[in-house]
Amino acid sequence: MISDPIDRRRFLLTGIALVAGGSLARGHNGTIHVTIENLAFAPATVEAQIGETIEWTNKDPFDHTATVKGGWEATIPAGHTASHLVTVEDTVEYYCRFHPNMRGHIKAVP
Ligand SMILES: [Cu+2]
Fold first, then answer.
1. Ligand 1 centroid to 102 CA: how many Å?
2. What CATH number is given for 29-109 in this structure?
3. In the prediction, which pLDDT does 29 show?
4. Cis bond upstream, residue 43 (ω within 30)
5. 58 pLDDT tier (thresholds 50, 70, 90)
6. How many whole angstroms separate alpha carbon 17 and alpha carbon 60?
7. How far is the CA of 51 from the centre of ligand 1 (A)?
8. Less CB within 10 Å around the terminal CB: N or C of the chain?
């Protein structure tokens, strides 16, 4: 019951994003897509349900990482993708180990 307004907002935001060009596109398989281009995560902030997968696509000509200090790290090679399964503790800030100014945020929701 408590999560109802959050779910509605998520649905609404996703719908708007799809209409606006799909930058927050959510697949039917529960994958949330983040593009890395020009040394930035886009979108920089994502809201993900626990059990969904975040997939980063690196369009830059050099490697990046999604690194959580004291936590997990995904390496995203140039021109490739990498993914992370969202778990309950994944409301986190992450950054790129090679370019620490690159920062992203994940908000995990039930
Ligand atoms: Cu980087």
1. 7
2. 2.60.40.420
3. 64
4. yes
5. very high
6. 23
7. 26
8. N
Query: Could you tell me the two tokens for 45?
Result: 């902030």
Q: Which pTM value belongs to this model?
A: 0.74
In the predicted structure, residue 23 carries a pLDDT above the cut 50: no
Residue 64 main-chain phi, psi, to 5 deg: -135, 170
Per-residue pLDDT tens digits for 61-78: 999 999 999 999 999 999
Tokens of 92: 């986190």
Residues with Cβ < 8 Å from 73, sequence gap 6 or more?
65, 66, 67, 97
Ligand 1 center to residue 10 CA distance, Å? Answer: 28
Whole-number Å distance, alpha carbon 19 to ligand 1 midpoint, is 29
Q: Domain map of the chain by residue range?
A: 29-109
CA-to-CA distance for 46 and 90, rounded, in angstroms?
A: 11
Q: In the chain, how many H helices and how many E strands?
A: 1, 9
